[in-house]
Amino acid sequence: MKLDKLSKQLRRDLAANPKRAIVLGLMVVVALYFWAPLVWGWMKPTSSGGKSAVAKSTSEPLVEATADASVTKSKKKSIRWELLAVQMAGDPRMKPLRASVIRDPFQWKEPPPSNVSSEATDELAQASVKPLAPSVKPTAESLGLKLESVLVSSRGNVAMINGRVAREGQSINISASDASQFEAVVMHVDRDRVELRLAEETITLTLAAPKLASGDELRAPVKRGE
């Protein structure tokens, strides 16, 4: 087909259906846009084949030289395993800890001896608590004892004496006016009194009656049926 006939055919198609001709033209432009770089890339190496061969021949020695340099450098830095084993054997951090240094957490260790002997401790305890002289009869006033409050319950009776809480059967230390100390046992706790056992004597502490304001009075509880 000659070019003049092709041009006439294109004019006829364009005149018959202009929309289809426009679409075909756009498709040709898009095809050229995508295929032109590929065709140019295929044709370019053939035209510059001599130059690429020269560049390849000149780049190969450089690659070989850099490879040789890296190999020699790695050989210089490498250490033989015998030398490394000797260094590890001489490293104090690689030595195991001796079993004698490790303390057994379950092993009983005797406490260190105290500076104060047991005899001195007994003498000090005996000196702090003196026995009551038999010629002196103790009283609540002479010993300075005061019953402050009483608690009677099913769980046990408790009394507060001189600011100290004591239960029945419990021992308490009493400081007298002459700075001497005595040990007493709480024998019985009642609603309004407490009995103490001091040596061979029994001391009874009475709960003081509360102070009333002016005009108040205490009345005895009235029994039912009276």
The outline comes out as elongated
Q: Could you tell me the number of beta strands?
A: 7
Rg estimate, integer Å: 58 Å
Low-confidence runs of at least 5 consecutive residues: 47-51, 53-59, 129-134
Under the CATH scheme, which architecture of the domain at 130-206 would be assigned?
Roll
Provide the CATH top-level class of the domain at 130-206: Mainly Beta
DSSP helical segment count: 6
Helix and strand composition category: alpha+beta
Helicity, as a percent range? 40-55%
Largest sheet: 4 strands, antiparallel
CATH topology of the domain at 130-206: SH3 type barrels
Q: State which percent range the strand residues make up.
A: 15-25%
Order of helical and strand elements: HHHHHHEEEEEEE
Mean pLDDT: 71
Transmembrane segments: 21-43
Keywords: Membrane, Transmembrane, Transmembrane helix
Write structural notes for this entry:
This protein has 226 residues and is an alpha+beta fold. Among the domains are: 3-47, no CATH class; 130-206, Roll (SH3 type barrels), CATH 2.30.30. Helix content is 43%, strand content 17%. The strands form two sheets. The protein has a four-stranded antiparallel sheet, with no helix packed on it. Strands 1-2-3 form a three-stranded antiparallel sheet, with no helix packed on it. Helix 1 packs antiparallel against helix 2 (18-47). The longest helix is centred in the N-terminal third of the chain and has 30 residues, at 18-47. It is elongated. Mean pLDDT is 71; it is low at 47-51, 53-59 and 129-134.
